[in-house]
Amino acid sequence: MNRRNLILLASAAAAATVFSSSAAWAQDAGQPIRLIVPYAPGGPIDVTARALAERVRDSLGTVIIDNKGGAGGNIGADAIAKAAPDGLTIGIAATATHAVNPWLYARMPYDAGKDFAGITQMVRVPNVLVINAAKAEQLKINTLADLIAYAKANPAKLNYGSGGNGSAGHLAGEMFKQRAGIYALHIPYRGANPAQLALLAGEVDFNIDNLAAAAPNIRAGKLKALAVTSLDASASLPGVPPLSATFKGFSIDTWWGLVAPAATPKPIIDKLNKAFVAALNAPETKTRFGALLAEPVATTPQQFDSFMASERAKYQQVVKASGAKVD
Questions:
Q1: pLDDT for position 2
Q2: CA distance 57 to 275
Q3: Which of 47, 247, 258, 321 is 20 to 30 A from 270, alpha carbon to alpha carbon?
Q4: What is the per-residue DSSP string for 59-91?
Q5: What's the confidence (pLDDT) of residue 81?
Q6: What is the structure's pLDDT at 324?
Q7: Residue 8 confidence (pLDDT)
Q8: What is the mean pLDDT of each run of 10 residues along the chain (327 residues)?
């Protein structure tokens, strides 16, 4: 290696050290951390992010939640990707933004596989197949087997709703139809809440929704849970089987976690991971998340990066099979 290259390498290493030290100093100096949530306030993702922001106040200082919704989460995720990699801007990566949207949208403003550095997964929430309770009673549908039998005996009579084309509920519904060998018309709504309201009003027959959103109406007897979409049964819904008990390997969970811009130095990622993992493992967090029927999942940065990569690979096939596209 010639002298010029040695000088360039030494200069680059020195610059990286200065950058890393200055970023760490910025955090230690008390500058607030901005945590971008790529969805509107009030949903489970926003609530859990705010809960963690409170828990890390002593270790990281003030964490400000910045809601940037729109385009299925792409606007907020893009803001995370393009932020300065100094540890002062981090954000939420979710099933949609980092596993589904790369295959759903014809044009993406960011690269889900290259533009982010994982900090830790935060949450896993089972999805649940729910049917309007009154419709279930009318059609004598008490189990998953009853629903499948009715659909086969009455082709094209059932429909189901989701939060939109390419949403987790839509993709899970298409997987279910394919594995069960049935047909049900998909009716997309402008978000999960309108889809649930349509189900409660009897406009659609069944939905596959995340458990955190569906649980209050299941408890109230307005919705009947027939199956969860996780590999295993959920302790929150005793007696409700997983779809995998009928269709081997069936698994679509809702998840989200924390990421930083890709070039964020490793010492900063490690510092953030340590603080947020401690917050996720706190008994108070488990209790608070449990009220949302959300399971805290603390991981290393490498584990979360690997998990997101495996989810992208899985959803590439699911989105292709569904035929869903957003131009």
A1: 52
A2: 9
A3: 47
A4: HH--EEEEE---GGGHHHHHHHHTS-SSSSEEE
A5: 98
A6: 84
A7: 44
A8: 48 46 50 95 91 96 96 95 97 96 95 98 94 95 97 94 88 92 93 91 94 90 95 88 93 93 98 98 92 90 98 91 82
Q: How far apart are CA 14 and CA 52, in angstroms?
A: 34
CA 201 distance to own-chain centroid: 27
DSSP 8-state symbol, 158 = -
DSSP annotation string for 188-224: E-SSHHHHHHHHHTTSSSEEEEEHHHHHHHHHTTSEE
pTM higher than 0.70, yes or no?
Answer: yes
Look at the block and give the residue holding tokens 């698994």: 251
- Using alpha carbons, select from 232, 231, 228, 235 the residue that is nearest to residue 214: 228
Q: Give the tokens for residue 18.
A: 């200065």
DSSP per-residue string spanning 238-299: TTPPBGGGTSTT---EEEEEEEEETT--HHHHHHHHHHHHHHHHSHHHHHHHHTTT-EE---
Q: Cα–Cα distance between 298 and 255 in angstroms, integer?
A: 12
Q: Report in angstroms the alpha-carbon separations of 120 from 108, 258, 302, 325.
A: 24, 5, 8, 29
Give 31's DSSP letter: P
